[in-house]
Design a protein that fits this description.
By secondary structure, the chain is α+β, with helices and mostly antiparallel strands. The chain has a single domain (4-128), classed as PF0523-like (2-Layer Sandwich), CATH 3.30.2380.10. The chain has five helices and four strands. It has a four-stranded antiparallel sheet, sandwiched between helices. It starts with 6 loop residues before the first strand and ends with a helix.
Length: 132
Amino acid sequence: MKTAYGVEVLPVVIEDPGGLVKEVGGSLQIVRAACIEAVVHAAVLSARAFERGTNRAKTPGGELLLRLAGTLQIRDAISEVGLAKGPGYLVIFGGSAEEARRKLGLRPWKGEHCPREKLKPLLERAAMVEVL
């Protein structure tokens, strides 16, 4: 899914997270989340933070982790929403998610969608990082 700010999000299945650790960070991140909408929202907020100079992390991928987890501690964010075996979301800032998926050998996945009542707190958590 291509979003505003040149961000792409793609649902994927991670088989070997250990082999991908060196690939994530910077402008490419792989995260776990309840639904694709939460990832897209956090990714757009991350890109906007860099555009405005209000980012808390050094990289867009790091900012995404902080916002998706709703924390300012990168260690906590990685533990909660970072790379792990199973379904997840590949996020790329300014590139092709499909090309990155193929290069990394990740299988496509259909992704999950959140019902509105479950989504609202996830969106609020991502936005909360602005005021922390």
